[in-house]
Amino acid sequence: MFCTKEKVLRILLVNDDGINAPGIRSLQKALTSAGHKVIMVAPDSERSAASHSISLRKDIQATRIAEDEWAISGTPVDCVVIALQKIITEKIDLVVSGINAGQNMGEDVLYSGTVAAAMEAAMFGYPAIALSINAYRDQLFASATDWFMKLIRTGLDTLAKPREVLNINFPNILFEEVKGVRLTRTGHRKYYNFITIINEEEDSFSYRIGGDVPQWDFEAGTDSEAISEGYISITPLGFELTRAETFPQILSWIEQHKLLELDR
Asked: What pTM was computed for the model?
């Protein structure tokens, strides 16, 4: 289905799984086929769990591998920065990050390069969406892609606001098995056996971070609950980190100990 003239979007497509990952390629194919203009700028290899890191004090190589396709030897955030400040010269309507091979729910959003790339774009003032699928293997990218295209056709892009990210997670089920879409908040999870010891000697050891599949608290209204019940989860993420509700207690402590204005 081709878009009407009014619906055509210029989209920056990024990820953290690498430029040849099936998730981003599935999106590229679908968006291009629908008539959207897609510019793909992604890491040249997997950069999962890169979080919001950027590459300092090192050269980063940007290589055009095809028309409107650039591979970057850096992090997902590096990709967004170089795309918006050097590669792209025309107005962008939307930045889409993903589809990530694995969920980005709960505390995972703090580790995720997928979410971080979208956040960097949002901090530049662009509408941004992060997409992930709830499976570490055998991901049904076609189902998630088809659902994203359906959401775009119904105006999802108009809900993405500057300095805010729409974090979307898809259950790893067939398109027709998805029960609907839920507006959610971030849940909570725990990883057990978070590290694997590879080699251990008397004064040193080597290890790998990975661990078992996370254990989720399926609280009502959370992303994890929605996914577990077969729904797509949409969680708006913002940048306000200050916990203003703790101000009275801390201010009371400051005043009690006469720390507000010190006598010199």
From this structure: 0.89
